[in-house]
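User: tokens in, sequence out, please.
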């Protein structure tokens, strides 16, 4: 085998990637984490994580991510900021990763690239992004002090972030396409009892209105087909996420939503290639499940490396 730079490369520094880095570093693997933005992924922009064990008062996503990164570095993992992984190649028993004009090689790879927010795909959404259209309440909520805003979606993110936005906005509308919310009951109860939140169910956003900034949205009732306009200054979209797996097409099995199919060891069909966290096909996407995936993937990546190193040694005997 050619000289390979790293034992393990972890692509992505969200909770899955960071936990994998803690386990791999502590396990003595020569580990590199390739991160596209600052560590923590989407968890880092979550205001309060209330269901990560060990923090009965909750912990901010940024604080948790920072501690995980510190812990990974303490155990020897290296970090490198890249633009984006554009290509992954598996040849001669090792992996070649291309990111822009840089190339990295490793004996094993864990893909922990997470998922990006899904857009609504309605007129003026792109033009008004950053001018009233946002995908991150924690990042942009403070710009809407005393304003009326809307959140789109009916999942945990939409409901949690609607509650968060009441710190700044005087009124938060939650626009959801069905009459039942997908979010946990504890959150929907909190939302329905909040005086500053109003749920607009069975409605979809057909258009975002505004020249230089958002001034309203055009809604359509999916049952009655009735159209309406809601005056707001900001719209926060929480319509789910899509996995970052473009560079894996044709290399590993992806499910119909583009998530990587793995077994219980987080292994893909390619020996030495693992996936962990939100990028993986699974039922429950939480910080704790991402962390669990990361630990499992790092353990089995270590086993894979042990196996190929034994084989290398055997060739010289
Ligand atoms: P999600 O659970 O997939 O919910 C997405 C929501 O957006 C759904 O209500 C969906 O409607 C709606 N939606 C999808 N496409 C839409 C469109 N084009 N127009 C309008 N609405 C649309 O996504 P999420 O809330 O971001 O959560 C992702 C994962 O993270 C979930 O597993 C969630 O449990 C987890 N999470 C957990 C916590 C927590 O436990 N504290 C916090 C945040 C996220 P339908 O319901 O009709 O499909």
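Assistant: Sequence out:
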């Amino acid at each position: 085998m050619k000289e390979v730079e790293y034992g393990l490369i972890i692509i992505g520094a969200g909770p899955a990637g960071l936990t994998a880095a803690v386990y791999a570093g502590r396990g003595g693997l020569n580990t590199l984490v390739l991160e596209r933005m600052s560590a923590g992924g989407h968890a880092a922009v979550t205001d309060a994580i209330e269901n990560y064990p060990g923090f009965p008062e909750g912990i901010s996503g940024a604080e948790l991510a920072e501690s995980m990164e510190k812990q990974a570095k303490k155990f020897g993992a290296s970090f490198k900021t890249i633009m984006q992984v554009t290509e992954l190649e598996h040849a001669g028993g090792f992996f070649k990763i291309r990111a822009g004009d840089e190339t990295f090689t490793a004996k094993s790879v864990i893909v922990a690239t997470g998922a990006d927010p899904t857009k609504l795909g309605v007129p003026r959404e792109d033009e008004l992004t950053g001018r009233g259209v946002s995908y991150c309440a924690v990042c942009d909520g403070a710009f809407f002090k005393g304003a009326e805003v809307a959140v789109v979606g009916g999942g945990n993110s939409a409901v949690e972030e609607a509650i968060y936005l009441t710190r700044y906005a005087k009124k938060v509308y939650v626009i959801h396409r069905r009459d039942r919310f997908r979010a946990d009951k504890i959150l929907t109860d909190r939302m329905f009892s909040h005086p500053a939140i109003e749920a607009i169910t069975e409605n979809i956003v057909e258009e975002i209105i505004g020249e230089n900034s958002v001034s309203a949205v055009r809604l359509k009732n999916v049952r009655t087909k009735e159209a309406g306009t809601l005056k707001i200054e900001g719209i926060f979209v929480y319509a789910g996420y899509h996995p970052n797996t473009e560079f894996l097409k044709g290399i590993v099995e992806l499910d119909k939503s583009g998530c990587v199919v793995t077994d219980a060891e987080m292994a893909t069909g390619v020996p030495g290639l693992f996936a962990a966290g939100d990028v993986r096909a699974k039922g429950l996407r939480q910080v704790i499940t991402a962390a669990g995936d990361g630990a499992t993937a790092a353990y089995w990546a270590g086993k894979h490396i042990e196996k190929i190193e034994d084989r290398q040694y055997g060739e010289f005997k």
